[in-house]
Amino acid sequence: FGRKLHLLDVIPSTQDELRRLAEQGAEEGTLVIAEQQTSGRGRMGRHWVSPSGKGVWMSLLLRPSVPLQMTPQLTLLAAVALSRAISREVPVEIGIKWPNDLLVGGKKISGILLESAAEDERLRYVVVGLGISVNLEAEDYPEELLEKVVSLKMASGKTINRSDLIATILDEFERLYDLYMEQGFAPIRSLWEAHSVTLNNETLLYTPQGPIQGIPRGLDGTGGLQVEMKDGSFRTIYSAEIGEVGP
Ligand code: BTN
């Protein structure tokens, strides 16, 4: 991964740039990195703060020849790869909040956005967008975000070498992707569950069908989140936003 590298200065979004390259036939492993994004995108159409030179804003192209329904598994794989890579480079304890936010001390340090194109129910390509708040300082964030987000530098007290971090991310990604292609989802599922902060806690999930509250107990074989409801029954969730369970 990363042998075809497009290193750019200021662009709207690495996602758009890589999707354009993917449509032109770019090969698996192609990587787009930007120093700064002017329209960085997050999940649910949110804006992603991407100031110059302080973060890792990049998109990686995958071309897995698997059915479209496997996309949730790749989402979870991305979270495990990124959390393992960061742990190798920076002395911080990382927790994965379902499906793929990485937290340090309960605050978000990284977000992942998967965008895919499919044909005949099979994935044609997946653009994996990775946003990591590396060397940002408190003043780089809008005030209201500070209680929810943190950078690796703020969390560890150390300035992090971004090139080393990117190399380690590619290494972990390639390893886990190979493992997934050889052995399927089972090993990824165990790794994700071991790093999760979502499991076994009372959780409010805003699903497209409305909010549900329950206790996530684990992943199923397809990558869905298995939530135990008050009456003891289980529901499998593929898409939702986790909310606060307030008093
Ligand atoms: C989220 O947590 O909402 C996902 C954030 C993903 C941000 C990354 S930064 C690189 C890539 N380009 C984008 O415009 N977004 C992703």
Ions, cofactors and other bound molecules? biotin
Please tell me the total number of domains: 2
Class by helix and strand content?
alpha+beta
Share of helical residues: 25-40%
> What's the rounded overall pLDDT mean?
95
What is the CATH level 1 assignment of the largest domain?
Alpha Beta
How is the largest sheet built, in terms of strand order? 1-2-3-7-6-5-4
Residue runs with pLDDT of under 50 for 5 or more positions: none
**Count of separate DSSP helical elements:** 5
State which percent range the strand residues make up.
25-35%
Q: Would you give the CATH topology of the largest domain?
A: BirA Bifunctional Protein, domain 2
Write the layout of secondary structure elements.
Elements: E1 5-11, H1 14-23, E2 31-37, E3 55-62, H2 71-89, E4 95-97, E5 101-104, E6 107-119, E7 122-133, H3 152-156, H4 162-183, H5 186-195, E8 203-207, E9 210-219, E10 225-228, E11 234-237, E12 241-243
Parallel strand pairs: 1-2
Antiparallel strand pairs: 2-3, 3-7, 4-5, 5-6, 6-7, 8-9, 8-12, 9-10, 10-11
Helix pairs in contact: 2-4, 2-5
Bound molecules: biotin.
